């Protein structure tokens, strides 16, 4: 009986010591995570081009000094949402005191005529910048029914997948419906595109046609049916 109860007491003691050690380690980890040792000291901004990284850091400066696990994600989202050029972002806590903000900026696809000049916009119609003169290298988007129309969405979807080698040759893009996207080259040649479907394939076909039949030698490139493209 004494041997049995002795073994039981030793097992109970070992169990208590083991659980106590785990709880102590857990408490130390939690304490360290929320201690001033883990306070935010550095904000690292990655992926910006048009947006000054210093402006992003300044917008989040009120989080400096707060332990990394306690950083207010809603406040961070609210501050970053004020930057219209930010399409998306992710944050990464890097102990002991660094917050990394990885930003994806909006990509311009074309230009709209605005009340105060020319609006450089992305595929969603968000204005990236407004200039008195038209930005070089971006086509004018002619969508009579505005940025919420099917025509604008179709034109923007096409521009978003065009390689720079083709986009820089464009003067304008016109679309009223989803199926009537038409590109105009700088020399006046037309490209009948049709719908945004198979746009990547159509871009490859058009690039090949422009090599074999350069602008100025034909009046129209019809790639609306890319397997049977037509020159006119």
Low-pLDDT stretches are 23-33
Tell me the helix content: 25-40%
What percentage of the residues does DSSP assign to strands (E)? 25-35%
Q: Tell me, what's the shape? A: elongated
- Total DSSP helices: 6
Strands, count: 12
Order of helices and strands: HEHHEEEEEEHHEEEHEE
Major sheet details: 6 strands, mixed
Mean pLDDT: 88
Instruction: Assign the structural class, choosing from mainly alpha, mainly beta, alpha/beta, alpha+beta, or little secondary structure.
Output: alpha/beta
Strand order of the largest sheet: 7-8-9-10-11-12
**Rg result:** 29 Å
Regarding quaternary structure, what we see is single chain
Give the terminus-to-terminus CA distance: 105 Å
Protein described:
The structure is a single chain. The protein is an alpha/beta fold and 232 residues long. It has 6 helices and 12 strands. It has helices at 2-33, 53-59, 73-80, 150-161, 164-167, 199-212, and strands at residues 42-46, 86-94, 98-105, 108-114, 117-122, 127-131, 140-142, 170-174, 181-185, 190-194, 220-222, 230-231. It has a 6-stranded mixed sheet. Strand 11 (220-222) and strand 12 form a beta hairpin. The longest helix has 32 residues, at 2-33. The protein is elongated, with a radius of gyration of 29 Å. The model is unreliable at 23-33 (pLDDT under 50).
Annotate the secondary structure layout.
Blueprint: H1 2-33, E1 42-46, H2 53-59, H3 73-80, E2 86-94, E3 98-105, E4 108-114, E5 117-122, E6 127-131, E7 140-142, H4 150-161, H5 164-167, E8 170-174, E9 181-185, E10 190-194, H6 199-212, E11 220-222, E12 230-231
Parallel strand pairs: 1-3, 7-8, 10-11
Antiparallel strand pairs: 2-3, 4-5, 5-6, 8-9, 9-10, 11-12
């Amino acid at each position: 009986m004494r041997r049995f109860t002795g073994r039981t007491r030793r097992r109970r003691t070992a169990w208590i010591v083991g659980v106590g050690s785990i709880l102590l380690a857990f408490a130390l980890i939690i304490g360290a995570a929320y201690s001033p040792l883990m306070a935010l000291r550095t904000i690292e901004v990655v992926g910006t081009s048009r947006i000054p990284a210093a402006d992003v850091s300044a917008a989040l400066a009120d989080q400096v000094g707060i332990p990394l696990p306690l950083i207010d994600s809603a406040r961070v989202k609210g501050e970053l949402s004020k930057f219209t050029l930010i399409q998306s972002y992710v944050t990464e806590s890097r102990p002991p005191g660094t917050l990394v903000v990885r930003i994806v900026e909006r990509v311009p696809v074309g230009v709209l005529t605005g009340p105060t000049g020319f609006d450089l916009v992305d595929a969603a119609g968000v204005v990236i910048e407004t200039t008195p003169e038209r930005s070089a290298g971006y086509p004018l988007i002619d969508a009579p029914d505005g940025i919420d129309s099917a025509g604008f969405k179709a034109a923007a979807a096409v521009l978003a997948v065009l390689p720079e080698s083709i986009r820089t040759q464009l003067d304008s893009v016109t679309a009223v419906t989803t199926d009537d996207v038409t590109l105009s080259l700088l020399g006046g040649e037309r490209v009948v595109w049709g719908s945004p479907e198979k746009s990547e394939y159509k871009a490859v076909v058009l690039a090949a046609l422009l090599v074999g039949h350069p602008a100025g030698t034909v009046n129209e490139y019809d790639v609306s049916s890319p397997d049977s493209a037509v020159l006119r």
